[in-house]
Write the structure tokens for this entry.
Amino acid sequence: MLPVFVLQESRTKHKMSLKLIPLEGFPLVEPGDDLVDLISKALVNNNLSLQEDDILVLAQKIVSKAEDRLVNLTTVQPSELALEYAHITGKDPRLIELILSESQEVVRVRRGLIIVEHRLGFISANAGIDHSNVSGPWGEANDWVLLLPKDPDASALQIRQQLQIRNKCRLGVLIIDSHGRAWRNGTIGATIGLSGLPGLVDLRGEADLFDYRLQATLVAASDELAAGASLMMGQAREGTPVVLARGFPYPLREGSLAELIRQKEFDLFR
Amino acid sequence: MLPVFVLQESRTKHKMSLKLIPLEGFPLVEPGDDLVDLISKALVNNNLSLQEDDILVLAQKIVSKAEDRLVNLTTVQPSELALEYAHITGKDPRLIELILSESQEVVRVRRGLIIVEHRLGFISANAGIDHSNVSGPWGEANDWVLLLPKDPDASALQIRQQLQIRNKCRLGVLIIDSHGRAWRNGTIGATIGLSGLPGLVDLRGEADLFDYRLQATLVAASDELAAGASLMMGQAREGTPVVLARGFPYPLREGSLAELIRQKEFDLFR
């Protein structure tokens, strides 16, 4: 059952503005931690309370850690295929083994690089497996890696539902990671899971100012939000893995990662 | 000569938050219009004044229109090659002719689709040529198309310098367009020109919390801002083509589109 929603007045000066507020002083997350508790405390510490239609943007890392997606490389036995790709890439064969186990297809392999279709459907380097800012129970950082959450849409939904009940308002939750792009340098934040907000917004068929019908204006709204919020998380510090987004301009609705994944038969670039 | 910069106190409640404020009531832009004048008036109408380190994000369309990049299709004579691509794509051969004249290389051609390397270096559908929201002097919308600005970095610099002199503070100017992605559905805002802010921010070599050196963390900061600001422009309405970004988290510096363009020899996906 969804809770009763209480509509609150927006307190922002400019009605239509979007505010991206990183929660400062967010603690290091450990396996088993209750993210809803940590987020709630961080909101209080930042003098913030959630309002109707707020969206919480979470870095993948804290969700994965809370869900104990840590793997110690010393426990991984690389396959023949992993050894082969390790030879080509120069990467640790145990890491390659994990990348393959998290993937549906290998898209490109070069020295220093392995790009795959993740089992969640998106194309990513290293299957999103993270080797930085990861420490195991005894702090031997270099042996530990962090896989993406098992089902980020489900993680987002669970966190959202609990936050909605606690705060008695409708919310969205967006889980993001940094992705490279095919043709451009640098990474940008991108959706890996969401609940309560649209992945895509379809503006096709809406008349523009001159009544010329837009032919293909499908906006990846949650990816635009992911990129903007990522800007406020930085990359190196795990200190700001939660950003409160207030003023998202499209109506909230149920959404899913699947909206954003181009089906393979329409993919011209792999 | 750059003007003397006066550092102003930030007025945002949360020191580190990013605010994306669309300027409401922005007028329709006509060829020859002075964008600096229009932006200055719109700021006043929105009760805003520019502060040190503010960034103005401009939709490509208004820059292109002010620079009179309108072309009437009835003036275009398609080449043999354009006719051939028109046959494959089902698009107007005169439009194809313009796309080719704005491109360095054709990357993919299919029914309904032509993806090129634009002469500015990025990969884009239709060379960024816009057929919506475009009207000529007599309003016969469907004959008119809009090319991208000739040199968007230069356009951004010129607008920035004039705004800096008028407002006596250091600013950034970012010109954006909506781009499709190789593997994901929907468009997101992306940089096509900039001045006074970094395209890329290099975090490589910065220690993370566990002193594990980040290996490849090059953030496309201006693209993250472009995507976030695009969210607040919408797509169909030309009514909000300027967004004021306040609270960009990285130091402003000179920047250029070239930072963001992956060199062809490192491009695995064309």
Summary: Chain B touches chain A through 81 residues (CB under 8 Å).
